[in-house]
Amino acid sequence: MTAPPQPPAPRFRLTTLAYVRRGDHTLMLERRARPGDLHGGRWNGLGGKFQAGERPEACLAREVREEAGIEVEAARFKGCLTFPAFDGEVDVYSFVYLVTRFRGEPLVEGPEGRLHWVPTARLHELPLWEGDRVFLPWLDRPGVFSAELRYEAGRFVGFDVHHYDMNDSTAS
């Protein structure tokens, strides 16, 4: 007797995404362009892929240390972003944090590109992914969010979001 064929295993990647704040400025990474890098030439927060068995907070601290040379002392969880088939194949789930206190001075040049303090009110002027323009204002909203940002062939095509008040778990 032959077992029925099994559906393919889901393909996904877990990541963290950190926005480090100092006063009214946000530390942004200007990604250097590299062959095959979807993010090359764009500006982004800090972050990256989970290592096996790693908690989101540990991934956050490690990625910020590796990319900016600073130690996270306090961060607020702001939400989760889902990017279905972001690269055409793999779903990406990003735990998003706002780093409110850190130790050290950020590097000028990190392994992924140049780091810049940008006035938070001017982030929308940077060459960002279009979906980033949607969720960046949510970092300053009370509560947390859960959002799906959809791209097709690298082009932003839409989003859905639920905002949660931390005193009430009902989505709005």
Describe what this molecule looks like in 3D:
The protein has 172 residues and is mainly β. It has a single domain (12-171), classed as Nucleoside Triphosphate Pyrophosphohydrolase, CATH 3.90.79. It contains two helices and eleven strands, in the order ββββαββββαβββ. Strands 1, 2, 3, 4, 5, 6, 7, 8, 9, 10 and 11 form an eleven-stranded mixed sheet that branches. The termini are far apart. The model has no long low-confidence stretch (mean pLDDT 91).
**Straight-line distance between termini:** 50 Å
Q: Give me the number of helical elements.
A: 2
- The low-confidence parts are none
Helix content: 10-25%
**Integer average pLDDT:** 91
CATH architecture annotation: Alpha-Beta Complex
What characterizes the major β-sheet? 11 strands, mixed
Report the CATH C-level class.
Alpha Beta
When the domains are counted, the total is: 1
Q: Which structural class matches the secondary elements?
A: mainly beta
**Overall form:** globular
What is CATH's topology name?
Nucleoside Triphosphate Pyrophosphohydrolase
User: What is the name of the CATH superfamily?
Assistant: Nucleoside Triphosphate Pyrophosphohydrolase
Reading the helices and strands in chain order gives: EEEEHEEEEHEEE
Task: Name some characteristics of this structure.
single chain, 172 residues, eleven-stranded mixed sheet, globular
